[in-house]
What does this fold into?
Amino acid sequence: MEKQRGSFTNKLGFVLAAAGSAVGLGNLWRFPYLAAKHGGGVFLLVYLILAVTFGFALMVTEIAIGRKTHLSAVGAFEKLNRKCGFIGYLACLVPFIITPYYCVIGGWVLKYFTVFVTNQVSEAASDEFFTSFITQPAAPVIFFVIYASATMVIVMLGVEKGIEKASRLMMPLLVVMTVVISVFGLMQPGAVDGLIYYLKPDFGRFSATTVLAAMGQLFYSMSLAMGIMITYGSYMKKEASLEKSVRQIEIFDTGIAFMAGLMIIPAVFAFSGGSEEALGKGPSLMFITLPKVFDSMKLGTVIGAVFFLLVLFAALTSSISLAETLVSIVMDKLGWTRKKTCVLILIFILAIGIPVSLGFGIWSFIAPFGMSLLDFFDFVSNSVLMPIVAILTCIFVGFVIKPKAIIDEVEINGKFGIKKFYSVMIKYIAPVFLAAILIFAVMEAMGIIIV
Ligand code: PFF
It folds into this structure.
């Protein structure tokens, strides 16, 4: 499909659009449960260090590749070197793995929104509510199907602009809400211990798993190593400062993740006692902890309903951009119409997502490497594929097109302050480090290392 490539009319437009894709369930749902599980403060510290080093270098690289070539992932790698198009293909695989399970979680958020709207807050605050919901055969599947279909209908009608506009209004509101909920949570007895757990690194809890989890989260949250930022970069104007834009997106994305942790982790201590078991709840943490907070709040039902509505919007903008990516990859390859492609993608999402949802209940016997299906897909994309794509991208830039190609692109507007650091990072530090954590991840999953 030949289409004039537009560009963002102003600098803020680019930052907001990229941030809209970056901020989603990764920040609100995934970051807090990982931080809780992997030692609180030490995870936060490792994450921040990785964000300003690896995250920064990789995001600059991806956006620069996109802006330089005006193409999305596959075309961009191919254009820069004919033999390297496969890196683009590999990157495109990632959204195919993430989208179905992203929509399963989206379905959970939708369920919680309806729970608060129908005033069942005290039921939702009980310990068993969430587990009994996700283990049912029909209910979570129905919410997932509704959520996934809504996402695809929006993509099919091409009305994401409306949703994006709405979410641009909702995003600041979401920030305000996280602040209000955090302050309320912090005022509860016991919450201060949670605050300390979250902010004070306990180096005794540091392990390779902490780094692995933080790295996977970084890719996921910033939409890196999956071709997305290359596409966004391809729409970026040459006049806008690339370095500054990356910094702004990173600050925004990390800021929201930090606030989500502040909202959830102290509340785990206040309402569930902060035991290892309570902290290690994994993907269910947000859904177990927040209803307890809302239940103890005045006007908690209304606040909870508004909150889950805002989360729903943040999730929708992300799943729309994920689904849109899948649709454009398939449309370009097969030359199908948009409508036909959307139907195919929806069938694909349902075919993978339904087993993921059932994996918590009647299909829990399917447990590859001892993980639930959701954890398995999450592991394959975040701990295996994304590091591989990132390593290949670093080698590609470091030794095929050379860091100078990226530095020149960044320097079209202004000096790239840390170009020495960038070169060393992309050539040596990042690939070696990434390879080490990738090997560790695979060995851990295969039971060769027990942590
Ligand atoms: N970065 C998003 C999040 O943190 O929720 C996930 C995501 C959205 C990844 C959109 C990729 C994407 F295209």
Remarks:
- The radius of gyration is 21 Å.
- The chain has 20 helices and no strands.
